[in-house]
Amino acid sequence: MNICKLTIPGVVAAALQLSSASAQDVSFGNRLFHEKADCQFCHGPDGDGRGDPRSPGRAANLHETTLNRDQLIEVIACGRPGTEMPHFDKYAYEDSNCYGLGGKDLGNDAPHDPHSTPLMRREIEAVADYIIKTFVGK
Ligand code: HEC
Question: Of all protein residues, whose CA lies closest to atom 8 belonging to ligand 1?
Fold first, then answer.
């Protein structure tokens, strides 16, 4: 008799928890992009590459990226050698975990530290997921 009363609210509660968890991930990525990591300074608030005129310029339009999730994570962690795209993994290039290269191999082409702050792996993944959900192909 009471089975329905007990299970339906349970299912609803579980569903609510799930949807609020993923909404939280996206808003976490959103905050990282716009505030903590300040990606928008170069990539623009809408990710279209039109950042602050004082930024070092020519940042990619993230709506048009053809990178998959793993490649996005790699670029965010490692930056892009020879460009203004900084590395957000604090330890990038200390060993050879970025494109198989160490900082010494790259010399002046080694990506810079970010002007904002390095990110933890979990944060890099959240910002990659935010880019996929919000910008890519849109
Ligand atoms: C100082 C400016 C600057 C900042 C800050 C910056 N980027 Fe970039 N980013 C660039 C530039 C410039 C490029 C283009 C590099 C090139 O020409 O290959 C780029 C490229 C990228 C790419 C590769 C896109 C593609 O399709 O090749 C991704 C992804 C990316 N940035 C994400 C981010 C994220 C996420 C953040 C914040 C965590 C961030 N960037 C912060 C300047 C910046």
Answer: 85
CA of 81 to the centre of ligand 1 (A): 11
Backbone angles phi, psi at 3, to 5 degrees: -60, -45
* 47-62 per-position pLDDT tens digit: 999 999 999 878 999 9
Q: CB of 37 closer than 6 A to ligand 1?
A: yes
Per-residue pLDDT tens over the stretch 20-30: 556 677 799 99
Place of tokens 């300040």: 38
Contact (Cβ atoms closer than 8 angstroms) between residue 77 and residue 98: yes
Burial bucket for residue 103 (CB in 10 Å: 0-12, 13-18, 19+) = middle
Contacts of 109 (CB under 8 A, 6+ apart): 81, 82
